[in-house]
């Protein structure tokens, strides 16, 4: 057991939880270094919002299908192996981007499919391991510290990538950051060998856990909330970075945006770890959701770089305040649900099913908006509508009733 007194007081942190945090940190650094710039890489090749929508739609659809498959696989084999499979697909994605180079925009579905499968295997395993390794008294700590590590990756990754890209001619800078991402994924795979094996057995009751929504009001609220969360994330995940690049025409400026956003997030995640108590979760969650929605109005009609930077800082505050109690509440609901220990994988898969259906709905709405109307008119209105996702999700979870030991 490991005691991290300065950060977490006297709470004892298991070794596997620490290792999982480090693996998650390496993943976050690798993704933050390169993933934002993949969208810009494709945008520079085609200049079409529709192409980015197709690419991100492929990611979400393949992620959804892979989650269901990975859940069945995780019932038969070691979950750590599923984690490694995910990282291998992520590595294949970057290898493929490097192979196609300036023709990558002609292979959007293939690239999105590889990345989506990587996400599906990785996050299924990571979420199940999180559920197994953490307890109610360490859940806020894990979610808060994981958020802080993600923010550190977000601080280092985008600004470093932006600096590298702008210092080289042609696409040499992009090639370098994709290679670095491969190295970081490899390190994550190696580290995963030190996590204790966690084999599973039993029948995969995916449909039964979907139907559990009829019998468990808390579970119905959680799944509906994740659909709403996905409604915002599906489009915002790529539109904001394009807004920044359009406003500046400079990857370093995009990196600076990421630096500011992640720096603020790191501070707030660190504070959230210590300060958000169980009895305050709901109020903090709603405040975070309200802040996330309010920030949209800064940028939808006039997305200047200055306004985008302010937006980045505000959502850097809002996301930790919303997601730390939101994630903890979700895991607490699962932990108290029907056959939670035996069906933990199915609960994670069904949760991600609703999250990704929300993302698909969001991107379909985006495609319809830019296809039937001028993007300059339709995109702002769409962002205002789907931007309510996190606030509505937080409000839904205020209705959750779970008795936990104090």
TrEMBL record:
Residues 1-200 form the Major facilitator superfamily (MFS) profile domain. Keywords: Membrane, Transmembrane, Transmembrane helix, Transport. The keyword Membrane applies. Its main location: membrane. It is found in: Cell membrane. It comes from the Bacteria. One of its GO terms (cellular component) is plasma membrane. PROSITE patterns: MFS. The keyword Transmembrane applies. This is MFS transporter.
